[in-house]
Amino acid sequence: MNVSPDRIDAHAHIGHGRAGRRSLQPDTLADCGSAVMLPMRGRILEVAVRLYRRLGHKKTTVVDIAREISMSPANCYRFFCSKQAIKEAVVEMLLEQVIVAATGITRSAGSATVRLLAVLQEVERLHRQRFIEDKSLHDLVVTAMRENWTSVQPYSEAIESVVAQLIADGQAHGEFRNGESMTVARCMLAATYSYTNPLLIRANEGNARPTSCQMLEFFVTGLREV
């Protein structure tokens, strides 16, 4: 899943999380539930992304965003209650892209083992791609994770759920030994944390260590029935 350098469909995911996954609530972003306001919210996020790439998320102000859209800052606050709310919404959108890619793989053909490996490799690939090609937005995601923003927890829960679902599927088909699937999923994510967490991509650059494929194969071998 490549992210266009010029445009992200900002309003496509905001406030519309899939069933079973908590999305940002309206009062987190702004008290504005009307569908009429969604196009302008999307426009604000689109401009915010462009300015984050140009100026960085720390230097970009609501005044900057409003100026780009030819609206007053006060009008901007009708859609988002603060600068932080805009950043939270952008982070949710970026992480949602990873969730959508991972969920799509769970529905593809292949054994649970093949799909499980593919999911975690795709999560790593997407975060690494952003680190290489879109550092300003990568830094925003890293900041959100380091400071435990509201938009991060639903992402963590969604990835845990995807991995647990595949482990349960593998157990049902005799690929993996029995065990509580969510506990196994959390263990697997902890074992692969340095590969799949954006916080550690920069820190692990150039370090001598197993590849993610080697680590995943090692872990999956331990899951198999003996």
Descriptive overview:
The model is unreliable at 1-36 (pLDDT under 50). The longest helix has 24 residues, at 83-106. This protein has one domain (10-223): Tetracycline Repressor, domain 2 (Orthogonal Bundle). With 226 residues, it is mainly α. It has helices at residues 26-29, 38-55, 62-69, 73-76, 83-106, 112-133, 135-146, 152-172, 181-191, 193-196, 212-223. Helices cover 62% and strands 0% of the residues. The two termini are 37 Å apart.
List keywords for this structure.
226 residues, 11 helices, disordered N terminus
**Which outline best applies?**
elongated
The CATH class, by name, is: Mainly Alpha
Percent helix among the residues?
Answer: 55-70%
* Structural class assignment: mainly alpha
Please name the CATH architecture.
Orthogonal Bundle
Q: What is the β-strand count?
A: 0
Flag low-confidence runs.
1-36
How do the helices and strands follow one another from N- to C-terminus? HHHHHHHHHHH
Cα-to-Cα separation, first versus last residue: 37 Å
Radius of gyration: 19 Å
Strand fraction: under 5%
Task: Give the overall pLDDT as a whole number.
Answer: 83
In CATH terms, what is the fold-level topology?
Tetracycline Repressor, domain 2
CATH-level-4 superfamily name: Tetracycline Repressor, domain 2
Largest sheet: none
Q: How many distinct helices?
A: 11
